[in-house]
Amino acid sequence: MLGDGPPRVSGHLAYRAMLPQASLPGPLRSQQVTAWLGPKLHAVQYPVRGGEWLNLVVIVQGPAPHDLQNWDHQANGADLQAATQLLCAPLCRLIDAVTASASPARPAWRLWPLCDRPPISGARQQAQGRVALLGDAAHPMRPYLAQGAGMAIEDAAALGSVLAQQRDPAFDVPALLQRYALNRWQRNAQVQARSERNGQLFHAQGPLRWGRDAGMKLLGEKVMDLPWLYGYGA
Ligand SMILES: Cc1cc2nc3c(=O)[nH]c(=O)nc-3n(C[C@H](O)[C@H](O)[C@H](O)COP(=O)(O)OP(=O)(O)OC[C@H]3O[C@@H](n4cnc5c(N)ncnc54)[C@H](O)[C@@H]3O)c2cc1C
């Protein structure tokens, strides 16, 4: 619809694992959401399925597999171990334990090359004529603000609300879709841009890294307080 060519290859690779916590040594089990930040990489772990399973995502930088149509690839745990061997001991232990938990029936890691597009620049990228785009189809973003699905849900609510406002059975579909697009595109562009910036901060090296760490120390949990994002529509 937009003729905007293939998506942008970010150079970031997400290694993903989900496994029963019981298969990990006791000290590595966790009921907390934990983010680890390091040079050119970061990792996020959190409990799922009522705390019985652990989800772990380790994002490193490197060349993407050639086949980008297929986004879910078999991963080699040894490649990840090599890319993360200089990290702090607790995270290395977790990655090693997850890698060791693999069996022929259940490989430990899946590899997702991450792609995105630059932030959208106008309402035409969300609706044209009788066609409207929602979610990743309109505004794929890096997962560093954890908002891709959130924005898809907000798009759906906004579209539903615009369509519910029409009373005339012969309503003007393109005009309604245009209103939806005008309501949504700037917010989606802002979240896309902030997600990309978060990735740069997460993977920072040198002075930017010191600044980031000092800011986190100073602000503590307030660093996650983003009223423009979480207070939207309240
Ligand atoms: C590592 C990672 C972590 C993430 N973490 C978070 C998070 O914590 N929070 C968050 O909000 N978001 C997160 N996201 C982003 C989130 O997963 C996506 O933004 C969200 O899934 C987009 O939803 P969607 O419905 O727009 O697209 P999709 O989920 O891609 O759904 C599109 C569907 O359409 C189907 N489809 C495609 N073509 C056709 C066709 N021709 N006919 C029929 N069906 C078709 C596809 O198979 C797919 O099921 C993360 C993403 C990644 C990669």
What features would you describe in this structure?
Helices cover 36% and strands 21% of the residues. The chain starts with 7 loop residues before the first strand and ends with a helix. A six-stranded antiparallel sheet has the order 2-3-4-1-6-5, with no helix packed on it. It has a two-stranded antiparallel ribbon with strand order 7-8. It contains six helices and eight strands. It folds into two domains: 8-115, 2-Layer Sandwich (D-Amino Acid Oxidase, Chain A, domain 2), CATH 3.30.9.30; 123-203, FAD/NAD(P)-binding domain (3-Layer(bba) Sandwich), CATH 3.50.50. The protein is α+β, with helices and mostly antiparallel strands. It has helices spanning 77-83, 89-100, 148-165, 173-202, 206-219, 227-230; strands spanning 8-20, 34-38, 41-48, 53-61, 73-74, 110-116, 127-128, 131-132. Flavin-adenine dinucleotide (FAD) is lined by residues 14, 57, 112, 114, 135-137, 143, 146-150, 152.
Question: What layout of secondary structure does this protein have?
Answer:
Elements: E1 8-20, E2 34-38, E3 41-48, E4 53-61, E5 73-74, H1 77-83, H2 89-100, E6 110-116, E7 127-128, E8 131-132, H3 148-165, H4 173-202, H5 206-219, H6 227-230
Antiparallel strand pairs: 1-4, 1-6, 2-3, 3-4, 5-6, 7-8
The structure holds flavin-adenine dinucleotide (FAD).
Flavin-adenine dinucleotide binds at residues 14, 57, 112, 114, 135-137, 143, 146-150, 152.
